[in-house]
Structures are given as C-alpha cells and as structure tokens.
C-alpha cells in the first residue's frame, strides 16, 4: 500500500451522482420530490435506517453523453490502480469497483460524495466491509512492507504506533489468497527476467518500490543512467 493522491471531481459528478443520490434518499424516506419517479416499496423513518444495499448505485450508471460512468472516471483518474493493493486493474479482465471508504451503512451523507470514493479491486472491496482500515489518501510511505519470500504484506518497521491497529486490520484485506498469488506471480516473473523493473512499476508500483528499498543495489537502481538500467535490474534480481 502506497500513498494515493485524490483525483479531482469530474464535472458531471454533481448532477449525475450527488444530486440524484440526494433525491433517492428523500424517496427512501417516503417524501415527495419534484420529478416524480416510482415510490420505493419500503421507506424508512430516518436516513440512518436505510440499508446499504438500498442506495441506488448511480456511480456505475453510464452517461449517454460519453458512454462512461463515475467508476470509469475513477479508472481514468487513478491510472487503473487499486487504491489498496497498488496493482493495476485491467478494464476487460479486472473487477474495478467503487469502495466507499466510510461505509454506506456508517454514514449515509457520504454515499454520493466523490471524496469518499476509492478505486478498489472487487475482491478487496468485498472483504473490506466496515473494517476500520487505513485510508489510501492518508497512508504513510513506510507504513507497509512486503515479505519477498512469502509475498505477504506486513506492517512496516517505521509505521507509527498510533496506526498499528488500523494497519493490522488492513493487512486482512491486502493478504487475501488471490492478492498474495498475484504478487507472487509478479515477483517470480521479475526474478526470471520476464518483467523488468519498469514493467513492474507500471503494473504493481508497491512491489517495485519494495524491491528498490530491499535490494542491495537500491541506490544504483535510482541513480543509474538509461544505458545501465538493465544491468541494475539484474543486480536487483540477484539481491532478492
């Protein structure tokens, strides 16, 4: 897990997601709203009582204007990287989802807020639930480390003590079986020379950062001129 810079809110988000979401909440509360629309079969006395799965998923609805959704905007804005795994989510074969960092059932006011959205691999989102995990927007660069033998993510030795509980909770979603297997595949292909450090940086920047940090030739990898980059990469493999 590495720090993620928040992407700017798309110009269409307010109308297509936030305002429509506000109307949907009013309908779920049994209130009359302008514009009509079908009244939900079940309404609720307070917004806090609305179940998470009753909020319309406007963030996945495709716009007629450009054939994209807010989720597509996130894929573009975040370079297709899962905010938690720091691994690329492919458009056709991956499973991108919108994670509500503050879960829908915990705060209904953030269900339709761009600032609460994190691009997330489907398996991670499903496992996260309402866990109190580290926010990718606020994570420190040394809070997590990688065991290059087991491919498990672990707590970084320089992680602040105040964050240990949340870091340990986050490890539960970072070390899902399929996530560990994917990291292992990347690392083994790197060791065998099928991927160089540049390719690893593109598809799994956290792994590339950990290899740089742990390799004995880390300084050479950072400072090497272009003509010696391949030789430096070989040095990094031999140090793993």
What report would you give on this structure?
The chain is mainly alpha-helical and 240 residues long. The chain contains 9 helices and 4 strands. A hairpin with a 6-residue loop joins strand 3 (144-146) and strand 4 (153-155). Helix 6 packs across helix 7. The model is unreliable at 217-222 (pLDDT under 50).
What tags apply to this protein structure?
9 helices; 38% helix; 240 residues; two-stranded antiparallel sheet; single chain; mainly alpha
Task: Give a short synopsis of this structure.
This protein has 240 residues and is mainly alpha-helical. It contains nine helices and four strands.
Kindly, what is the distance between the CA atoms of the first and last residues, rounded to a whole number of angstroms?
20 Å
Shape: elongated
* Distinct helical segment count: 9
Structural class: mainly alpha
Strand order of the largest sheet: 1-2
Q: pLDDT under 50 segments (min length 5)? A: 217-222
Quote the beta fraction.
Answer: 5-15%
Main beta sheet: strand number and arrangement?
Answer: 2 strands, antiparallel
Mean pLDDT score, rounded? 90
Helix content: 25-40%
What's the number of extended β-strand segments? Answer: 4
Order of helices and strands: HHEEHEEHHHHHH
Radius of gyration computed on alpha carbons: 21 Å
